[in-house]
Amino acid sequence: MQYSSKVLENAIHEIAKLPGIGRRTALRLALHILRQSPEEMHLLSDAIRVLVDDVMYCKNCHNLSDSDICGICADQTRDRETLCVVEDIRDVMAIEQTGQYKGLYHVLGGLISPMEGIGPGELTIQSLVSKIESGEIKEVIFALSSNMEGDTTTFYIFKRLNNPDLTVSTIARGLAVGDALEYADEITLGRSLQHRVPYENSTR
Amino acid sequence: MQYSSKVLENAIHEIAKLPGIGRRTALRLALHILRQSPEEMHLLSDAIRVLVDDVMYCKNCHNLSDSDICGICADQTRDRETLCVVEDIRDVMAIEQTGQYKGLYHVLGGLISPMEGIGPGELTIQSLVSKIESGEIKEVIFALSSNMEGDTTTFYIFKRLNNPDLTVSTIARGLAVGDALEYADEITLGRSLQHRVPYENSTR
Fold first, then answer.
1. Please, what's the b/e burial string for A33-72 (b: 16 or more CB within 10 A of its CB; e: otherwise)?
2. What residues does each domain of chain B span?
3. Domain covering A78-171 in this structure, CATH number
4. Please, what is the Cα angle at B117 between B115 and B120, to 5 degrees?
5. Any idea what the Cα angle at residue B93 is, between residues B63 and B26, rounded to 5°?
6. Which of A120, A123, A179, B149 has the most beta carbons within 10 angstroms of its beta carbon?
7. Residue of chain A whose Cα is closest to the Cα of B66
8. Which residue of B has its CA nearest to A54?
9. How far is B141 from chain A (nearest CA, A)?
10. Yes or no: domain B6-54 corresponds to CATH 1.10.8.420
């Protein structure tokens, strides 16, 4: 498509590189940007630049942070003997939202995926292993996605830990709360049966 | 939701102001931005800033432009006696894509809409009327959306023109090429019948 302005064309070109945004949506966004006050849109432009330039990763857990050590790792009231291993920072947010977990996290930054060329070296696995070897951690909980990449990554890390004093668990798989039994797939339902919980614990 | 970084939270807040982008999509986009090279993402931030600061509107037709007069208005090979009135610059692009129109444009910048508080004063109607009164234009073609706002705007401008020497037309309404007759709504089909064209012209 022909644009009447090079400036517009360039903006569309850059916006359309974002995932899930095609050239038509990019044009709509660019026209929206032009209808706003310049001050408002400088805020957007600056927010992106500051995000790129100023964001830091926690040296301990690799979560996004505004300082060297993130708020969760710095919080001395949390259980420092339990470590939850997750794929990325969205998972930290999701688990924090539940209010059910008071330990620390370790953000891998991805999952092992030979198909996408992501090996253990691309992830923060070495830092995880060193942290556990240093001895403060008593339990490691794997909270990775339930797919081939997630299972591979869990298995790889489990093999590397190799410490009989360490409790290693994964989050439970089963029917979602509110799900109808008849629509559940057989693997999920199978695991739900296999890992059934005593009734007196089931609603806690 | 709690974010571990103020910088991230601010970026999400600004991105989520864009139309059609909620906080969850904004988070996904922000994490995508963090995975790219800083240079790439400075291009995005700069493209938005340059768009806001440097874009110009053609003094003649109000189309987006890189200079005072846009490429279409400056093109002396175009038919300068025909003027097509459109709502916004996307319509100019759509009509240019057809390759069927060689005249000039006038971009209104919106449609009259009492519901949204947009009156004739918010649009470039005065500039359109002055341009037509200056006398070079022989035909005005209204190419506005086929809804209440579009019809109101066309009617308002038509009344203001009030010049017996001027040919005024609107683009044809009817079944889209490829449409099945049985699924057409009755108003469209009615207009299609009313404005039927001689068969020898119909495929030109």
1. bbeeeeeebebbbbbbbbbbeebebbebbbbbbbeeebeb
2. 6-54, 78-171
3. 3.40.1360.10
4. 110
5. 90
6. A123
7. A5
8. B7
9. 21
10. yes
The per-type count for chain A, helices as H runs and strands as E runs, is 9, 6
Q: Strand pairing partners for A167? A: A139
Interchain pair A44, B4: CB under 8 A: no
CA A5 vs CA A151, B104, B108, B126, B149: distances in Å:
50, 17, 18, 24, 28
Residue A7 structure tokens? 């400036």
DSSP state of B68: S
Which residues, at least 6 apart from B179, have a Cβ–Cβ distance to it below 8 Å? none
Domains B6-54 and B78-171 are alike in CATH topology? no
pLDDT digit of tens for each residue in chain B (204 aa)?
677 888 999 999 999 999 999 999 999 999 899 888 889 999 999 999 999 998 889 999 999 888 899 989 999 999 999 999 999 888 998 898 888 899 999 999 999 999 989 999 999 999 999 999 888 899 999 999 988 999 999 999 999 988 888 999 999 888 888 888 888 888 888 888 888 888 777 766
**Of residues A64, A142, A148, A61, the one with CA closest to residue A107:** A61
Residues B124 and B60: beta-carbon distance below 8 Å: no
Report the alpha-carbon distance of residue B92 to residue A4 in Å, rounded. Answer: 9
Contacts of B93 (CB under 8 A, 6+ apart): A1, A2, A3, A4
The set of residues, in sequence order, having a beta carbon less than 8 Å from that of B111 and lying 6+ positions away, is: B87, B118, B123, B144, B145, B149, B150, B152, B153
Structure tokens at B139: 């035909």
Q: Pick B2's closest partner by Cβ from A10, A50, A96.
A: A96
Angstrom distance (rounded) from CA A102 to CA A157: 22
